[in-house]
Amino acid sequence: MVNLEWYRTFKAIYKTGTLTGAAEALFISQPGVSLHLSSLEAYVGYKLFDRTGRKMHPTERGKVLFNAVSEPLTKLEDVEKNFQKSTEKTTPTISVGMCFETFQTTLEQYVSTLPFNLIISFGEYPEMLDQLDKGILDLIITPKKGVSPNILHEAFSSEQIILVGGKDVDTEAFKKVLKTKDKEQIENWLKQEKWYGTTGDMEHLFQFWTLNFGHKPDFRANYIVPNLNSIIRCLKGGTGLAVVPDFLCKKEIDNGEVKLIWEGEKKLENTLYFGCRKNTSYQLEIEHIKGLFRQVMSKDIFTADSQISMILE
Predict the structure, then answer these.
(1) C-beta atoms surrounding 105 within 10 Å
(2) CA torsion angle for 281, 283, 289, 291 (degrees, to 10)?
(3) How is domain 4-85 classified at the architecture level of CATH?
(4) Taking the domain 93-158+270-298, which CATH number applies?
(5) Which tens digits make up the pLDDT trace of 253-309?
(6) Which residue spans adopt a coiled-coil conformation according to this UniProt entry (predicted)?
């Protein structure tokens, strides 16, 4: 069945005469407009516009289609507006993308207090950047910046990727190995331990290992669990190692349930960004969510220097 948003986009292009004008009218990206148009043309089986410079001129078939859908679309939009006024008042709905662990650690505790509707989406960062650009998402939290000129990126915090372990890991033995400054010995010691990983993302381990040993790890995790928060809970059992972002396990380290094992000879840090489109009708709601993230991050700023110095003493 055809996506009604394709018709809405088609109408906006017809009315404004440009892809840019349609994007501004609909508060979505120009690539998103182009995608909707190409999808509709593929669906109906013929070209709807001829491009002359930046102007979009409707073809004869395009004019016929516009005459057929314009009035029904207008009625549908009126129904939508009346329905929203009568049932949802003026409450907007914001779609936000982030990783599952970030949601659990930050925004989840505030969801019930939000004065607007919220849809949370989980996925890989490239996918979320693409959905933001197309207007599917309104805000994303990501450690990676995209290249689309339609997206604004704002740095708001950072995360350090650290090596942690269960409380029963023999840190005294590791401390002695670290003092040798022999990378091969350090690597061999670490590889003898039990390791945790996740089903979908081993990037943290790969980056940490490559930065400190010059190559990717040549071993597999012993235990594969659903996500990083599962790893933290498993480590509380006493044994095992994992490489994770520091903010996910700050409380467990402070409580002595998990140990900070090593920051690495070279520290691995990522900048965290808010990503949103330049043109959005949800600026107030987006700023509200940004404020909650800043509040959480300011409470959970984690400096591991004191912890690592205790291990190395």
Answers:
(1) 22
(2) 180
(3) Orthogonal Bundle (1.10)
(4) 3.40.190.10
(5) 999 999 999 999 999 998 999 999 998 889 999 999 999 998 887 765 433 343 434
(6) none
